[in-house]
Write a structure and sequence with these properties.
mainly alpha
């Protein structure tokens, strides 16, 4: 048997391998790389570029597992589908509910930062009422784009991918010649506890790749295209992040504590015009991340509605646009509430810790799915048996141990709320 029973829906199959790569890239490269270089520099100094390398190696172990699991399915839902097939509907619901929370928290954090960067052009956006209005406008516009159609959503993602990468590539090109050689020879490794806390924060810049597995039901060839897109995209992103951090620490070693570190680096390299270009690139980058989130995350709610874990209302498809419009509207409201209730760092940490929990769930599905579904010719291969999944599991658990008590309490509260919602839904059936 090659996979689960195909969902019979009104969704259109519009996404190819390039599209899934763009979703993964935009789901990963968002606000993090524009805010975290200063935080990493403050916490780890000259060693900070190597923290990005370490996080890249760790995330690749998780990505390989996701690629293998994704090669079994062509249904919408991603982790919802995987956990439901492996462990039953309640675990599948919790995976989807938690990942929806994580994506909504990340959306909220990134919306705040995007409007902050836009404040470089119009200072009132930096804080206060204008800032909150800006966050609300972004949420409404992206919701409308994704309700109108998957093709429109993908067109926006492709355009934003180009607009976000060009300024970052220019920054690396101009700054790499100023590389500080001490990064490779005299960087001191931080203490283990401090290193773990810093990696948990920096890891935020690497999560989000799972956005690409969620809209599998709208893929032309999900079992082939999604695994390849995941692996290639995350490898490229790791190298890119490493170079950006090298440029930051070499050009502006005093940048620790800056709210807009890359714009400040661009100011040094290119003057005010360069800072403006980089800041505009940050706005486009974060908007691309938000667009990817708006496209993928509601599909989990839709999948749970289809599976009966949430009310049927979530599983309905718009008769004209063929999109899960109800799920998109709910996700929009959820993310706006979070955006108005927390700041960037808290939302980022909550997003990361919740996502790691979902990663653990998905890693655990692999041996079960392998036993239930077997293998088929041409499937994405995971060499070394269960060695890579075991490493990915240990990595995720280790990073989770560095989360704050507040993050755990918030996450636990949402798990209880989700469990109650699940019980109410199932009791009505």
């Amino acid at each position: 048997m090659r996979g689960s029973k195909e969902q019979k829906t009104g969704l259109r199959k519009e996404i190819g391998q390039l599209g899934f790569g763009a979703i993964a890239l935009n789901g990963t490269i968002g606000a993090g790389i524009f805010a975290l270089p200063a935080i990493a520099l403050e916490r780890a100094g000259l060693f900070s570029p190597w923290i990005y390398v370490a996080c890249g190696v760790l995330i690749m172990a998780i990505v390989f597992v996701f690629a293998r699991v994704a090669s079994y399915f062509s249904d919408t839902g991603g982790p919802v589908t995987y956990a439901t097939r492996a462990f039953g509907p309640f675990v599948g619901f919790q995976a989807g509910w938690l990942l929806t929370l994580s994506r909504a928290a990340a959306f909220a954090a990134n919306a705040h930062l995007m409007v902050t960067y836009a404040g470089w052009f119009w200072p009132p956006l930096d804080d206060g009422t204008a800032h909150l209005v800006g966050v609300g406008v972004v949420c409404v516009l992206l919701t409308a784009i994704n309700i109108v159609g998957i093709k429109q959503g993908m067109m926006a993602i492709f355009a934003l991918t180009v607009l976000k990468l060009l300024p970052l590539v220019l920054l690396v090109f101009l700054g790499v010649s100023q590389t500080n050689p001490e990064i490779f020879a005299a960087a001191d490794i931080p203490p283990l506890d401090s290193l773990g806390e810093t990696m948990l924060i920096v890891f935020y810049a690497f999560v989000g790749f799972e956005s690409a597995v969620i809209p599998a039901g709208e893929a032309r060839n999900a079992k082939r295209d999604i695994p390849l897109a995941l692996v290639r995209t995350i490898l490229a992103i790791t190298v890119f992040y490493f170079l950006i951090q090298i440029v930051t620490i070499s050009v502006a070693p005093e940048m620790a504590g800056s709210r807009t570190p890359l714009a400040d680096v661009a100011m040094i390299l290119m003057g005010s015009i360069g800072a403006g270009i980089l800041t505009m690139g940050a706005v486009f980058s974060i908007t691309g991340n938000l667009t990817s989130s708006r496209l993928s995350a509601p599909r989990m709610l839709y999948a749970m509605g289809q599976l009966g874990s949430l009310p049927d209302w979530f599983g309905r498809v718009h008769p004209r646009f063929h999109t899960p419009s109800n799920a998109i509207l709910f996700y929009a409201a959820f993310s706006i509430i979070l955006a108005l209730s927390g700041g960037f760092v808290l939302l980022a940490v909550i997003s990361t810790i919740v996502r790691l929990m979902v990663y653990v769930m998905c890693i655990a599905t692999l041996p079960v799915l392998h036993r239930k579904l077997g293998e088929y010719e041409g499937q994405f291969r995971l060499y070394g048996g269960m060695t890579v999944p075991a490493i990915a599991l240990l990595i995720s658990i280790w990073l989770m141990t560095h989360a704050s008590q507040q993050s755990w309490l918030t996450t636990g509260g949402f798990m209880v709320l989700g469990g109650l919602l699940y019980l109410v839904t199932r009791r009505r059936d």
